[in-house]
């Protein structure tokens, strides 16, 4: 009873709010309220995973099998608000929650048998120290819990790069084409890999990572992100 009273007191003084709408959360809700979950701009890319807007965007950059996204990214929309909280508001647990949401959705469609390992796009150590966590790794952790597929952390970023925000598609590719490497190649040999990131814009970063994996004798590489724009 003592702990319940303390929890109720803290909830009253420091109420937990939804990362989407900022309304107070009920005790049974975590990070995102039921209303926002019901209104997430979810995609159906996993139902056409080998032929959709994302795979078209990656043509000429890499040779992956499938590319999927949980959400559609729109400026000012719910997906942008959630990504902002995940990356800049110290909400690493939000990445895990979104990973679980997508993981269970994918499991219902039989995707849990499609992959042997999940690999997050890595941050450079400087940026990792500054932020305190890798949002893509947190997304991977949530997917892993839902799909029962282990996470592999052998992919590393070896060169610090400038922000990609205002770069063209070609500039983004040149910025990341040689910044990733594998620490231990043998851990992914002949494995079906799911490479994950928080967001896909031009696809340059994901393609650069995928190419490193594809050069290391993996069986296949698929891509999954929290949100992607057209």
Automatic annotation (TrEMBL):
CDD domains: PRTases_typeI (cd06223)
Domain Phosphoribosyltransferase: 136-229
Short name of one Pfam family: Pribosyltran
SUPFAM superfamilies noted in UniProt: PRTase-like
Family (UniProt): Belongs to the ComF/GntX family.
Record-given protein name: Competence protein ComF
Organism: Anditalea andensis
Lineage: Bacteria, Pseudomonadati, Bacteroidota, Cytophagia, Cytophagales
